[in-house]
Design a protein that fits this description.
The chain is of the alpha+beta class. It has 2 domains: 16-352, Bira Bifunctional Protein, Domain 2 (BirA Bifunctional Protein, domain 2); 365-456, Rossmann fold (3-Layer(aba) Sandwich). Helix content is 42%, strand content 18%. It is built from 18 helices and 16 strands. The protein has helices at residues 16-35, 49-52, 57-62, 86-93, 103-112, 157-173, 184-193, 200-207, 210-213, 215-224, 229-239, 245-256, 260-277, 342-352, 372-387, 401-410, 421-425, 447-456, and strands at residues 39-40, 46-48, 66-67, 96-98, 121-130, 142-151, 177-183, 284-287, 301-307, 316-321, 335-341, 365-367, 392-394, 415-418, 428-433, 439-443. Helix 8 (200-207) packs antiparallel against helix 10 (215-224). It is elongated and about 90 Å long. The two termini are 55 Å apart. The model has no long low-confidence stretch (mean pLDDT 90).
């Protein structure tokens, strides 16, 4: 019995109709990236594990897909014993892994090609990434990220422009959003305020899960990480501080304004929000002190975007990282970036029925085929339409009209051009408008003008 074909859990196939919609998302995002001066790059699907490990925190490292060494991968294991740890074994049989995100490979790229690029360097990248996560709604093991980063500049104008880009993208996609903004320096000041300055990573990893697991589970995790009850209690009013951005910053100034890093964080947030007030944004934005983003490399502003009208996790996020390139031997290069989650955006747009009814990737015109003579008659006009930029095709096999019309229906082709015996005799075509079934006969010389008016105007 033949094996039933399947794909790994957490991955998906995409048929033509879905790809047209996905490309609509990618094209909309690319158009905004280009408008702001970002240039495209690509990096390999796999990276050396020395590039990837230690950049995403302990939990991130566990989600890396490792690739077995080619050939006899056990040849690198000199001896196995009951005491051989997983890390020892994994390091011996696997030297490469699938990339977890696009930011760390980008940092590697910047260092590797530092003499060939102009700083500040603004790049965008749209490629798949892989995470060995438990598949669930909105969470996949293979998914695309659409990243834009600028490195080599400390200016907070970069952060403000990224927020403006987020606004432009989601306006183009017609998704109502809110962007939540925080700053890791504020979180560091808060960690200092509650008496646990060395626990910043534990605090951020825990409160990053607040939406998913709730405050009680977060407090339990903080306790397990070594925070005492007094520190956890002190943290609560900070996390749930009320008021607008200005009021929150005033309250924070009383709590953490005396610490150097807390003061710096407050100043950065104030300056960023001052920029945003000048930008006439359509999306909503707010300071959210519970926003942490679990990745360890963020050092300044952090962002997270959510759709207002769909129950979905974040659909875009990012932040400032001050020394990610330092890991690869190029210290002191600050960067900031955002990543659009194309798969979650697709799910939101599908749920809310936001995709446009037609696309420039779909066939607009189908010529029917009733035999060699009719083919020869149609081909010059088919060529003219394509040269004009109209997507057109001819049914490749002569056959019954019913079969050809079914093909047009299945592909949602809006216009069918018929050329039977009567049309050939009179040097005409019959045009059928599929949405209402209406037909009209036109002189062959008028076909290009008629269809251009309908499809290009």
């Amino acid at each position: 019995m033949a094996q039933k074909p399947s794909i790994p859990k957490g991955t998906r196939d995409f048929g033509p109709a879905v790809m047209v919609q996905r490309n609509f998302i990618f094209d909309s995002i690319k158009a905004v990236f280009r408008r702001y001066g970002y240039q495209p790059i690509e990096t390999p699907a796999m990276e050396n594990l020395t590039t990837l490990l230690g950049k995403y925190g302990e939990e991130g490292d566990k989600l890396l897909f490792r690739i077995l060494n080619s050939g006899d991968f056990l040849s690198g294991v000199s001896s196995l014993s009951d005491n051989t740890s997983f890390d020892q074994l994994a390091g011996s049989i696997s030297e490469k892994g699938l990339r977890y995100d696009l930011t760390v490979p980008f940092a590697r790229f910047v260092v590797q090609y530092r003499n060939d690029i102009a700083f500040p360097f603004k790049r965008y990248q749209i490629q798949p990434v892989w995470r060995a996560d438990r598949p669930q709604k909105g969470r996949y093991r293979e998914f695309y990220q659409c990243d834009a980063d600028v490195v080599g500049s400390d200016s907070l104008l970069n952060e403000a422009e990224l927020v403006q880009m987020v606004d432009d993208v989601f306006n183009a996609l017609n998704i109502r959003t809110i962007i939540k903004i925080n700053n890791r320096k504020l979180l560091a000041g808060i960690a200092d305020y509650i008496g646990n300055p060395d626990a910043l990573v534990d605090i951020t990893v825990a409160i990053d899960k607040l939406d998913k697991i709730g405050i009680e589970a977060v407090n339990k995790e903080l306790s397990e990480k070594g925070l005492d009850a007094g520190a956890i209690s002190k943290l609560q009013p900070v996390l749930f501080m009320e008021g607008n951005t200005s009021q929150k910053l005033d309250q924070l100034s009383q709590l953490i304004g005396q610490t150097e890093i807390g003061k710096k964080g407050i100043e950065e947030v104030q300056k960023l929000f001052a920029y945003l007030e000048e930008m006439d944004l359509q999306l909503d934005y707010e300071l959210d002190l519970t926003l942490a983003r679990g990745l360890n490399y963020y050092t300044g502003a952090i962002f997270e975007v959510k759709a207002k009208d769909a129950a979905m996790g974040s659909i875009c996020g990012g932040g400032r990282y001050d020394d990610l390139t330092g890991i690869f031997g190029m210290p002191g290069v600050s960067g900031v970036g955002i990543s659009f989650g194309a798969d979650r955006i697709y799910d939101v747009m599908t749920e809310l029925k936001l995709f446009p009814p037609s696309s420039n990737e779909s066939t607009s015109v189908l010529f029917t085929n009733f035999g060699e003579t009719e083919e020869k008659y149609c081909l010059p006009y088919l060529r003219q339409l394509r040269m004009k930029g109209i997507n057109a095709e001819i049914f490749p096999d002569a056959g019954k009209l019913k079969k050809q019309m079914k093909y047009a229906d299945q592909k949602n082709i809006p216009i069918v051009v018929l050329s039977g015996e009567e049309e050939l005799k009179n040097n005409q075509f019959t045009v059928k408008w599929m949405h209402d079934g209406q037909q009209q006969t036109v002189a062959a010389s008028q076909l290009l003008e008629l269809l251009s008016q309908k499809l290009l105007s």
